[in-house]
Design goal:
The structure is a homodimer of 333-residue chains. Chain A is of the alpha/beta class and 333 residues long. In chain A, 39% of the residues lie in helices and 22% in strands. The first copy, chain A, has a nine-stranded mixed beta sheet. In chain A, strand 13 and strand 14 form a beta hairpin.
Chain lengths: 333, 333
């Protein structure tokens, strides 16, 4: 039996974010659904980029942001995801390694260019995402390094990974390897529209025990069970999932397990600047606590702290030292 | 006589900034002089990039930042500078046009890649810059569109443009065209080390009247006249320059002309986050006022406001609406 070399291995789309400010009118004129993630092709990506304002490029990708958050909180994180060997691909690889995350998935030398997500941040801090998957489409089961999966306490998969067709197999391969090595598998539902695209398959993954721990926010949970009533959806989730974390923005978050529900309030935030990465960093905080032996309530608080910090700044990768903040908050020693 | 189609035409190095946080120790270990700009070659750029932390990419370049600031304040700005037709070159072109600046310099299809500046931001907010000039080296006199220079009330040149050898000729060509069309020419001294490299040539540009208006900060002014005494340096500048703007960080700024000296205090800043672009945005505010008919004191105040805003955020391109801030401050209507 191998030693646990990683606390959290995240597998997801390797994406560089291009953030720009936009007014609500711009979203309406371009038919975008505020707060959600839409998939776009290369032509649409070029058209939208030409129409949008000046950008800031920051490495992103939902699961990759979570891996960076885990490393920032002092736990051992790894990432598997596909970039091309191009300018943005080099930026992605540099940034995730410089953040202390183990990343060794080989870059593609042919095919589509590195994925990018055009993110429009409205004056209320809400982000609306438009993703061109590019090279991320080409993640396959061959990219799943069994030794790395076996070495991780938990393998964390993003629901967005269900969009690139070949990545589904990579996802299932990773889950199988993890379980065979008696490790846990977590899934984030990613986005209410993503849930809408794959409701049946996600429910099957949860009910079959392919995933042990589910992360979702209120909108995703309601979308999963096609109900407008939060309590109804929560009751279904308690029946279907082994363990789950549900986040509700300013209403706080809950951890559900066979032992019942643990709730914590949201972290106080002075001003919401940009909500990009809120869910990713909540997962990072929770997983750091979960894999390093904290109680569920403490893990939730660590998630709330990381999420509160990320929405107080621009972009989904932390500017300030998360470990120092967690220590100041008495959550980590 | 052509109409003034532009208020300010800025000519400089077209650069994409890569910003990363760094501790003071990192600067010392890499032999960097804090707060200054050093030129590096491609190999050094790769080595430094590999060693530095996760980055944020934002279009930059000193004169380009000034052009963006002028446009953000509601005046008409243009930019001339050289990128390559590569990923970063497209980012630069998109961002400056999306900011409302006229930019039509053709991108190079061969040769060095688009210039980048690796900027290390220390906890005190000070930035230390390492520039790989790349394609910016290839700006030549052929890139100076006479009709554009003739149409601009003032042509603003950055001292850094004296580094790429071929750009010197472009610089002098632009100054000649501007003066022939009875337009003004401004020069920023850019950096104390830059002044040290070209002291004799810069003094000649100023004394010969090749430039009408000089921008410098205290360190650059002292370097120009090789004195540690501010008043001595200022006396020399009054003799040599037709008009000049001298910025002194928290000590405020002065405008020098044949009519004497006008002084204004610094703009109150809550917290200095990143000083990148402070001088560039001061110039933007001053030039906006200067070319649209404000009094020198009002132009200085507009410069102080723009500089104060840019050091309160990360990067040298404004996140907030500068025109709204200037209106709230009663400086523009």
């Amino acid at each position: 039996m191998s030693a646990h070399k990683l606390d959290v291995l995240a597998i997801g789309n390797a994406i560089v974010d291009v953030l720009a400010r936009a007014e609500d009118d711009f979203l309406a004129a371009n038919g975008m659904s505020k707060g959600s993630m839409a998939l776009i092709d290369e032509t649409q990506a070029q058209q939208l980029y030409a129409a949008m304002g000046p950008g800031t490029e920051v490495s992103g990708g939902s699961a990759a942001n979570t891996a960076v958050g885990v490393a920032a909180l002092g736990a051992r994180a790894g990432f598997i995801g596909k970039v091309k060997h191009d300018g943005l691909g080099k930026v992605f690889g540099h940034d995730i390694r410089a953040a202390g995350v183990a990343f060794s998935t080989p870059a593609a030398h042919e095919g589509a260019s590195t994925a990018r997500c055009l993110i429009l941040v409205t004056p209320d801090g809400e982000r609306t995402m438009n993703t061109y998957l590019g090279a991320a489409q080409d993640l396959t089961a061959a990219d799943i390094d069994a030794a790395i999966v076996e070495s991780a306490t938990i393998t964390y998969l993003e629901g967005y990974l269900w969009d690139p067709p070949a990545a589904k197999e990579a996802f299932l391969t990773a889950a199988k390897i993890a379980h065979k090595a008696h490790r846990k598998v977590a899934l984030t539902l990613s986005d209410a529209f993503c849930v809408d695209r794959y409701r049946g398959e996600f429910l099957e993954l949860i009910r079959s025990g392919t995933v042990d721990l589910v992360f979702c926010n209120e909108a995703e949970l309601k979308s999963l069970y096609e109900t407008a009533d939060y309590d109804t959806a929560l009751t279904h989730l308690k029946q279907d999932a082994c363990e789950a974390v549900v986040t509700r923005s300013e209403k706080g978050a809950s951890f559900i397990s066979a032992e019942g529900i643990v709730r914590v309030p949201a972290y106080p935030v002075h001003k919401v600047v940009d909500t990009t990465g809120a869910g990713d960093l909540f997962a990072a905080g929770f997983l750091t606590g979960y894999t390093t032996g904290l109680e569920p309530a403490e893990s939730l608080r660590l998630g709330a702290l990381a999420a509160g910090e990320i929405i107080s700044q621009i972009g989904a990768r932390p500017h300030r030292n998360l470990l120092d903040l967690a220590r100041e908050g008495g959550l980590l020693s």
